[in-house]
Amino acid sequence: MNNLVILISGGGSNMLAIARAAIRERWDQTLNARIAAVISNRPHAAGLQAAAELGLSTEVVDHTAFAGHADPRTAFDDVLRQTIDAHEPSLVVLAGFMRILTPGFVVHFEGRMLNIHPSLLPAFPGLHTHQRAIDAGCRFTGATVHLVTTELDHGPILEQAVVPVLPNDTADSLAARVLTQEHVIYPKAIKAFLKSQA
Ligand code: GRF
Q1: Closest CA to ligand 1's atom 4
Q2: Which atom of ligand 1 has the smallest separation from the CA of 118?
Q3: Among residues 133, 111, 116, which one has the least CA distance to residue 124?
Q4: Does the structural domain 2-197 have CATH classification 3.40.50.170?
Q5: pLDDT tens-digit series, residues 33-87
Q6: Exposure of 196 by Cβ count < 10 A (0-12 exposed, 13-18 middle, 19+ buried)?
Q7: Structural domain boundaries of the chain?
Q8: No. of H helices and E strands in the chain?
Q9: What is the CA radius of gyration of the chain?
Q10: pTM, to two decimals
């Protein structure tokens, strides 16, 4: 069985799109895959309640609980890695997970950890991608699913979707249009990845 572990920080709409695809397409049978856990760094992430309502196992590793450590980022990543490893994952899926991960963590999961980024990488790595695309006068933007490497937002690309930038777009209206396509390409990328590993 291929255990998937999905990491979220907020609403988890990408996690929900993946979970619904897994149910609808019977990934347990078609891909020998299951979502073993949804883990958040934020105890009140709305996506945790939504995941539980779908019957998914949820866990929290609260990054604020490590503030007193000499190296909080590494201490958090170590506990997060152990929490993930307990599920023996074939694939770790970052889905709206808003933490910069340490190189040690990334190397531990390298080759089996994906992220979705709301731009057409390598354009606009980092934050505020929609406003930057509008400010640059882009006619198109989109979303990218990529393997996570130690270089932020720069790993091998697995899937992309192109989305038009409309003349009166705001960052919010553009984000909503891109998010709709994220929900299409993430399940597609995960299926292709799992098939490639079979
Ligand atoms: C989305 O814009 C996604 O591109 C980025 O995080 C945001 C929220 O994602 N990675 P979700 O709704 O929590 O899945």
Answers
A1: 118
A2: 4
A3: 133
A4: yes
A5: 999 999 999 999 999 999 999 999 999 999 999 999 999 999 999 999 999 999 9
A6: exposed
A7: 2-197
A8: 7, 7
A9: 17
A10: 0.97
Could you identify the residue written with the tokens 């400010």? 135
pLDDT for 112-147, tens place per residue? 999 999 999 999 999 999 999 999 999 999 999 999
Question: Ligand 1 pocket, 115 CB below 6 A?
Answer: no
**What is the rounded CA–CA span in Å between residue 155 and residue 147?**
5
177 Cβ inside 6 Å of ligand 1? no
Angle between helical axes of 46-53 and 13-24 (0-180°, round to 10): 10
- Does ligand 1 lie within 6 Å of residue 94's CB atom? no
Handedness of CA 64, 46, 79, 129 (dihedral sign): negative
User: What ligand 1 atom has the least distance to the C-alpha of 94?
Assistant: 10
> Quick check: is 117 catalytic?
yes
